[in-house]
Amino acid sequence: MPALKPSERMKIPRQRMPEREADERRTAFIEVNRGYTSQAAVTESMRCLQCKDAKCIAGCPVGIDIPAFVDAIARDDLPAAADILFADNVLPGITGRVCPQETQCEEVCVRAKKGDPVGIGYLERYVADWAREHRRELFDPPPPSGRRVAIVGSGPGGLTCAGELSKRGHAVTVFEALHRPGGVLVYGIPEFRLPNAIVDAEVETLRRRGVEIVTDVIIGQTYTIRELMRTEGFDAVFIANGAGLPIFQGIPGENLKGVYSANEFLTRVNLMGAYRGEESDTPVLTSTRTVVCGGGNTAMDAVRTSRRLGADPATLVYRRSRREMPARAEEVKHAEEEGVVFEVLCNPVEILADENGWVRATRCIRMELGEPDASGRRRPVPIPGSEFDIPCQIFIQAIGTRANPLLTQTTPGLNTNKWGNIIVDENNMTSIPGVFAGGDIVRGGATVILAMGDGKRAAAAIDAYLRNGE
Amino acid sequence: MFKIVQAEWLAPKVRRLMVEAPRVARRHQPGHFVIVRVHEEGERIPLTIADSDAGHGTITLIVQVVGATTERLCGLEAGEGISNVAGPLGRPTDIEYVGHAVLVGGGVGTAVIYPQAAALREVGNRVTAVIGGRSREYVILEAELAQCCDDVFPCTDDGSYGYHGFVTGWLKDLIDDTGDVGLVLTAGPVPMMRAVAEVTRPHGIRTIASLNPIMVDGTGMCGGCRVTVDGQMKFACVDGPEFDAHTVDFAGLTDRLTTYRNQEQLAWNRLHETALGDHSRGAHCQMSGLEAAAPV
Known about the structure:
Chain A is α/β, with parallel strands linked by helices. Chain A is 34% helix and 16% strand. Chain B has helices spanning 22-25, 68-74, 110-122, 142-148, 167-178, 190-200, 236-239, 250-256, 261-273, and strands at 2-11, 14-20, 33-37, 44-53, 58-64, 81-82, 84-89, 100-106, 126-133, 151-156, 163-164, 181-187, 206-210, 226-229, 232-235, 242-244.
């Protein structure tokens, strides 16, 4: 096929992601986005202008060579596209689904200046899904370095670091506290956004590369960091144990029956499989009316999950306005299509009980935006006397997490900040030589791809540390 | 898979399981618990580690049948396996010299105080155990406790064995008679722990209760195990499970433990309609009224 001229490329409109109908998905946990057809993928890939100074690469936290893999799709050479993609990103089926591309690679895409950016995320997903279906060959194993690295946590940061280190010949063991690898990818992000089977497949790819994953081990409790280094024979450690304890607002009624943290609700449904009803032994409360408090991706996941479990209405309460919501635009759009009710500029002040200690309503107060706060967003201020009640039987708190103390409190010499997050240098090394950290335990609540970026950067630094002893 | 090396009934519906879990055994201290998942579709439940043997790599769990999950677990025999055992979790018991320490255990709560008793004795305390059950057959671990306590006093609600009455009756007299009790540790049904706290409160005796709320992950992530202690929200899995009994909101704990009562009854019914519809195991009895899905 002759190469297209830029003017021809400019004329191609962005290919839409096929989605399941809102009516169908309101009650189903099946994935919403269906993925590009091969024709749509090739067409979309031709929209890329193949910039010499490709801004998208710098916009990607793991630095994927985007123009190269997109060009391989345009040439219909999917094995080459997969090679390029996997060289920079060991979890493309995951990032192709959950990355906020609109604030990363696609935001800086030159085509976004005038119209729609190239659908980089959709193309990434397309290649990853093709590779999962069609590729079974083992990677050429690099020569073993003879060094061993322990990774704490099998979420996106830990898995990425594991994959990158195994590419460099190091023997990697990942310790996971839960019974199934994947961290937030399996306990947090719902099936309709990221099927657990995709996570399992990408974990399996890492296993085929020689990464060992040990479940049911809680570092800080089962082993300390010191034991890993001194008696278990590891030469370096990467701590990626993730976000920690859910934050509650501290309002009256948060211990009532029917109040969940988003973490608990999502874990029961996703990790423990409560959405499959009687097939799973783990119960979850379902109700006709649910209120979710928060405006991030976790809040969207919780409210859309409760909708699927029968909540009507499922109401999202957020104290700022729609503009300040940290959730991805696509998640907000999907939630709206599925009939989620948005109560913005509104904050819970009390959860009210019936005579048996069950939630019966959420008392909220209207808010207005005042002066910008430390985050640069306008501070929400309550409007006196504007309280009103939203009837509900379930209330889900989704306002964030704070650092988990289990590991840090049993690791003397590991410096943390005032919030309990681990302090690292520019190479992601902590105050203990040979011990690195990344993801939410360093950043507080962040995203899958930022954790992966940390994992990749730390892997390079760990490799240098092991080779040079520095 | 975590292999069961020994299984025996200690009392009606109370089973002792010795499980191969070398990583847990080597780090176990009194007060620690594990999260157990019986099979691949199983729920995660917390169980106190009643004993461990680091040399043989085993831990001992004492489990009471209170619902479908615990019935499945108690139905396992030596040689069979448990899908997952994760731990040790929780903060260990503070073991220090106080002079005279009294441990009050009710039902399977006695499994919690057993390792505490041994550790408290080791640092030189006089150790007294007061253990209760509905009737004689429900009093467990008396012989084991006798090995590491100065005195063991069994109590039964129906008077079929030992003191006729609640453990709190005996405890009250013990405090008055000895006058030297420096610490009370208690584990068992919530109403019992609450009553123990009320007995010791006027005497100002430090009293620690081992709480048993509903948990999922057991590592602080879900917050399902939150309890109110001294007016503050605490997570039993990472802040506990042991707290100052004089400041615990026991009423709140009791109420939260009933959250899944309907679902638990349905799960119990399903279990008894299907695979385990076996009369020898009491197939048609009602689910126990104890704190279902939150075994001690």
